TrEMBL record, chain A:
CDD domains tied to this protein: ABC_Iron-Siderophores_B12_Hemin (cd03214)
Lipid bilayer topology: Peripheral membrane protein
Subcellular location: Cell membrane
Protein name stated in the entry: ATP-binding cassette domain-containing protein
Alphabetic keyword roster: ATP-binding, Cell membrane, Ion transport, Iron, Iron transport, Membrane, Nucleotide-binding, Transport
GO cellular component: plasma membrane
Single annotated GO MF: ATP binding
Family classification: Belongs to the ABC transporter superfamily.
SMART domains, per the entry: AAA
Domain of life: Bacteria
Coiled coil stretches, renumbered: none
From TrEMBL, chain B:
Top-level taxonomy: Bacteria, Pseudomonadati, Pseudomonadota, Alphaproteobacteria, Hyphomicrobiales
Keyword check for Transmembrane helix: yes
Topology within the bilayer: Multi-pass membrane protein
Subcellular location per the Swiss-Prot or TrEMBL entry: Cell membrane
Record protein name field: Iron chelate uptake ABC transporter family permease subunit
MF terms (GO), sorted A to Z: transmembrane transporter activity
InterPro entries per UniProt: ABC_BtuC-like, ABC_transptr_permease_BtuC
Family that this chain belongs to: Belongs to the binding-protein-dependent transport system permease family. FecCD subfamily.
Keywords: Cell membrane, Membrane, Transmembrane, Transmembrane helix, Transport
Keyword Cell membrane: yes
Any single GO CC term annotated in Swiss-Prot or TrEMBL for this entry: plasma membrane
Length: 252, 313
């Protein structure tokens, strides 16, 4: 369980997050949505202790992120930052292999190698395994980074806009993989999404941030409501029913 | 962490064999009367010094580039070499009779401080401009170097500074070069920390997410850079470009996973410095050109070529 209590964050004097409290039960996919600058990445970085906490507390399985040793946390929680500009020349296999870093003390064991191979397979990277990441396309690199987070094999997976650069096929495959991880392995996934229909189709719960506050929180059906969406995003959009699922016509 | 299986073992073999051949050549090549057996007592320390200093400096460059996340820095462009000079100068002034090990310790301390200060100041630079860091480094090194020259002039020790800042192996003798074995220790330390250093190169967000203690890893890196810089300055004098050129070439060959590249960088550095020293003995035979001069010319050319290749290839 991830518990965020009364977290506020400022950069300089500008309030970025204001008094956020949020509990993520174990298991399931939670989508974090909201306009640009709402504070989604900031919240994710605070939970993943990439940014030091200023006010409030955050615990992961009861461990306070502010005081728990980095390695202990890295065995429970993996994070894909929004822009992980990696300019080191590593092969895809090497990069994904570093997902095992928190677990080992040096060389990869056979078990580690099996996990790495499974992650490569799962994100359709088999053909790219030997390529240097600086030779990949944006979407291929993104998949390699997600695979590295996956190879960390943690109970909690935090992904900041993992669909960036992905084509439709791979975006759908990634969302289904996240769903599968939650359903079959009881993993807890918190994923920042801009494509609201992916959020509606694959998440159990949708949390919307706006101006550093929680603007909506509930199952997809409760958020996929024209009034709620207009409050979050600032313009009116139609929501239609397709075979019982809400589809947001946000692009018209 | 990850296997080095991608790098063919033959590549390691080729590198190791080349270094061995150069080492053997270094034992026999050059001016001097008498048989090889007579020359051996002076040539052996000289060749070992070139081998150790080369490997150490190449690794120091690699480590510096890894913790600074920038391919264009090395000990002499981050102020480490010049700061080490300040330490020996202080030792020469305040404890002229002290044993070499103490002078070495003084040089290490100032090199540590100088490198740490560089990294602290560099943190304020915008990360989006990768060439700003080496530029700042060159200015910073020049300022420290100028301070060194001024203080040495005041103390009337200017000719020593010239010796420290331009590497040469002809003066290498028993009783002094043995210090360089500590460079091998630093190479071993870097090998021990290879995975952590590679993770640090992935950037603060990814490294923290993987549970790396980034600050501790940086400190370890600074220690390696400072000790190697101090060692080389004290024993043979500064050797430019080794730390820049060798890691850059190896990165092109096998990438940046230190577990795979580090042995090649160490061997490459040893080979380059041995070759430069041999060349220095032959170019104006029977006179010698200091190895630092040869490395300055060759290193600058290779580096320009690498820069150009990076843009066009
Ligand atoms: N270094 C900084 N200095 C000043 N303001 C910052 C800084 N970093 C972030 N901010 C501000 O904090 C706010 C929240 O940023 P954050 O990255 O969390 O937004 P986000 O919801 O992830 O947006 P996006 O959808 O664009 O990724 C933004 O208004 C942003 O301008
Ligand atoms: Mg963001």
């Amino acid at each position: 369980m991830i518990v965020v209590s009364n977290v506020s964050h400022r950069i300089g004097r500008a309030p970025i997050l204001t008094d956020i409290s949020l509990t993520l039960e174990k298991g399931g996919v939670t989508a974090l949505i909201g306009p640009n600058g709402a504070g989604k990445s900031t919240l994710l970085s605070l939970i993943a202790r990439l940014t030091p906490l200023q006010a409030g507390t955050i615990t992961v399985d009861g461990l306070a992120v502010a005081t728990t040793p980095g390695r202990t946390l890295a065995r429970r929680l993996a994070v894909l930052p929004q822009d992980s500009a990696i300019d080191a020349r590593l092969t895809v296999t090497e990069l994904v292999g570093f997902g095992r870093f928190p677990h080992g003390a040096g060389r990869l064991t056979d078990a580690d190698r099996a996990i790495v191979a499974a992650s490569l397979q799962r994100f359709d990277l088999g053909d790219l395994a030997g390529r240097f990441i600086d030779t990949l396309s944006g979407g291929q690199r993104q998949r390699a980074l997600v695979a590295m987070a996956h190879a960390q094999a943690t109970d909690y997976l935090l992904l900041d806009e993992p669909l960036n650069n992905l084509d439709m096929q791979h975006a759908r495959a990634l969302m289904r993989t996240l769903r599968e991880l939650a359903d079959t392995e009881r993993r807890t996934v918190l994923v920042v999404l801009h494509d609201i229909n992916h959020a509606m189709a694959h998440a159990d719960r949708v949390v919307a941030l706006k101006d550093g506050r929680i603007a909506a929180d509930g199952p997809p059906a409760a958020v996929a409501v024209p009034d709620v969406l207009e409050r979050i995003f600032g313009y009116a959009m139609r929501v239609v029913d397709v075979d019982g699922d809400p589809v947001v016509l946000h692009h018209r | 962490m990850t296997s080095a299986a991608l790098v063919s073992p033959r590549l390691y073999g080729v590198f190791a064999a080349s270094v061995l051949a150069l080492f053997a050549a270094s034992l026999v090549v050059g001016a001097g009367s008498g048989t090889a057996a007579l020359l051996l007592p002076s040539r052996l320390p000289r060749s070992l010094a070139a081998l150790l200093a080369g490997a150490g400096l190449a690794i120091a460059g690699l480590v510096m580039q890894t913790i600074a996340r920038n391919r264009f820095v090395e000990p002499s462009t981050v102020g480490a070499t010049q700061s080490a000079g300040l330490g020996i100068l202080a030792a020469a002034v305040f404890m002229p009779e002290a044993p070499i090990v103490l002078k070495m310790a003084a040089a290490t301390l100032t090199a540590l401080a100088g490198t740490a200060l560089f990294l602290g100041l560099a943190r304020r630079l915008p990360p989006t401009q990768p060439l700003l860091l080496p530029l700042f480094g060159i200015v910073y090194s020049s300022v420290v170097g100028a301070a060194l020259t001024f203080l040495a002039w005041q103390a009337d020790l200017l000719q020593f500074v010239e010796i420290w800042m331009n590497g040469e192996f002809s003066g290498v003798v028993r009783g002094r070069y043995e210090l360089l074995f500590a460079a091998a220790l630093m190479v071993a330390l870097a090998w021990w920390a290879a995975d952590r250093l590679t993770v640090a190169a992935l950037g603060p967000a990814v490294a923290t997410g993987l549970g790396l203690d980034l600050a501790a890893t940086r400190r370890l890196g600074v220690v390696i850079v400072a000790v190697v810089s101090a060692l080389t300055v004290v024993v043979v004098g500064a050797l430019p470009f080794v730390g820049l050129v060798v890691p850059a070439m190896v990165s092109r060959l096998v990438g940046d996973n230190l577990r795979a590249s580090l042995p090649l960088v160490a061997l490459g550095g040893a080979g380059l410095v041995l070759a430069a020293d041999i060349a220095g003995r032959l170019v104006r035979y029977p006179y010698e050109i200091p190895v630092g001069t040869i490395l300055g010319v060759v290193g600058a050319l290779v580096f320009l070529w690498l820069l150009w290749r990076g843009q066009h290839g």
